[in-house]
Each structure stands twice: as C-alpha cells, then as structure tokens.
Amino acid sequence: SSMAELCVHSVLVTGANRGLGLGFVQHFLRMPKPPQWIFATCRDPKGQKAQELQNLASKHLNLIIVALEVANPTSIKAAAAKVGEHLGGSGLNLLINNAGVVKSKMLDAETLEDMTETYATNTAGPLLMGQ
C-alpha cells in the first residue's frame, strides 16, 4: 500500500485522542521508519479522554501531544507555535484533518447553534488548519 511506502519527517493528526485519529497515530508509530515527529492534537490532552494518547506518549519520544481546538484561530496559532518549537524552520510535512463533530438528530430538532458548531469544526476548521 502507498501508506506503507510513505516516508514523512513530521505529521500532525487532529482529533487524535480516539477513533480514526488515534488509529492514525498508532499506525505512524508502528511504521518501519516512523516519522521523526508525530503531533497528536486534541481539545484536552490532560483529560480522561486522552488517556490512551498519554500512555503512547510516555513510551514514544517522537509523539508530542498538543492542545488544539480546530475551530479556534487563537488555539491554532498556539498549537502551530508549539509544533514550530520542535520543527524549527523545516515546516510540517503532513496534516491529517481528522477532527470532526457529528450531532445526528431529526430535522425538527436541529438548531442553529449545533449547525454552526458543526460547520465551524468540520468545514472552517480544516481550512484554518491548512492556513
């Protein structure tokens, strides 16, 4: 598979504390030549929901957990600065915009607040992250 041949120096995965995001982190750690830096981001790195990530980071020095709220430009700037401290001027090779929210409900129960949060996280978030 092309994923097996992929050779990256640095990768950042959003929403890395569970599900697919955590799966990506585990995959990169298991590669024959793992990235020199794996940045795993989630909203609350010290929280209970990030326990598995914390366990992995204690065993792998190349895994850095970074606090990040993808819909918040201030949070993105802070995360980018932290990543930059490790990478210097070399820049990030791969960004995996995995973080997302799903609030499935019936049409008549839908709210403007939930739609706005979903759009901010799932649509604007990846754009802001790319910038």
Descriptive labels:
131 residues; DHB2 dehydrogenase; Rossmann fold; four-stranded parallel beta sheet; 45% helix; NAD(P)-bd_dom_sf; Fungal_SecMetab_SDRs; SDR_fam; alpha/beta; 4 strands; oxidoreductase activity; 5 helices
Would you write up a description of this structure?
With 131 residues, the chain is α/β, with parallel strands linked by helices. The chain has one domain (10-130): Rossmann fold, CATH 3.40.50. It contains 5 helices and 4 strands. It has helices at 2-5, 19-30, 51-59, 73-87, 112-130; strands at residues 10-13, 37-42, 63-67, 94-96. β2, α3 (51-59) and β3 form a beta-alpha-beta unit. The model has no long low-confidence stretch (mean pLDDT 94).
How many helices does DSSP assign? 5
CATH topology (level 3) name = Rossmann fold
- Total beta strands: 4
How far apart, in Å, are the first and last alpha carbons? 29 Å
Mean of pLDDT: 94
Biggest sheet: strands side by side, in what order?
3-2-1-4
Helix fraction by DSSP (H/I, runs of at least 4): 40-55%
Q: CATH homologous superfamily, by name?
A: NAD(P)-binding Rossmann-like Domain
Number of structural domains: 1
Report the principal-axis shape: globular
Evaluate the radius of gyration: 15 Å
SSE layout and pairings?
Elements: H1 2-5, E1 10-13, H2 19-30, E2 37-42, H3 51-59, E3 63-67, H4 73-87, E4 94-96, H5 112-130
Describe the structure concisely for a colleague.
The protein is of the alpha/beta class and 131 residues long.
